[in-house]
Amino acid sequence: MSLESWEEDWDMYTKILVPLDGSKTAETILPNVMRLARESTSKVVLLTVDAPGLDSKKVGPSWSNMGDALATLERPDAQMKAYMDSAASMLAGMGVEATTVTVAGGAAEEILIYATDNGCDLIAMSTRGRSALKRGLMGSVTDAVVRASDVPVLAVGPKSVEGKDLDGSIRSIAVPLDGSDMAETVLPHVEKLANLLSLDVFLLRVVRMVPWAYGAHERVPMDTTNIETALELEAKEYLATVADRFTAKGITCRTEVLHGVPWDKIVNFSTTTNDMMVAISTHGRSGITRFVLGSVADMLIRSLETPVLVVRPL
What we know:
The chain is of the alpha/beta class and 314 residues long. 41% of the residues lie in helices and 19% in strands.
């Protein structure tokens, strides 16, 4: 996508898919869902996945213990139905139309299939705080969904804090851009969120100077001042062009050029206040490539106390 093809008629969310497993961790996404659904009059689908072969005796009778099991989104039928019905009733009491659905299979796969087959235009879910190595060995439902979903994913991570959500303190949205068409695919979503929730927009560009890429190294010193100045000027001009599009639509928009490691600088900037979420476009990597290279979106989800909207280019 390029700025010239920025869609003008992209519809707001009409059906939000919310995977739940009965745990407190999964429920941390609900305040965000409530605000979005109320403002957009979106319908909400609460989904649980009944994984075949689950032995509830091995997991234990406690919902808390079940929530910590390796396979997520699993519950005995009677308990889970009561839980899901209660969650739907709670949302209804807040003015949100919600239905419940139970499907069987692998959690991540079934979430993705249901979202695609039933016209969901947003998946909203929470994630656990596993280390990169454990995620690589055991897998993670949220990681898998973010990596493969054709539908935008609104995620809250293990450091999420009650009140730092769309129904609480969130008043702005930070948008990391690198000048690529891929990064710009998030812009229509940012525009709609900003209009829907009256959010200010902060456009970010992280400039990372790597001296050896320009012929400099320890034994051959090189003055890269001019290169750094040119990179920063190019970043400012690019962000200004994008900002003009938001300003023309009546959205308050500011820009900021940062220097350093992208995910670290984005996290630092986003945590300077308690009212900023992040929206980012990301590649869908998997396996050893993801493990070695890492993922800015993944690091943001696991580092921030506020929600992250992730859009994967189609």
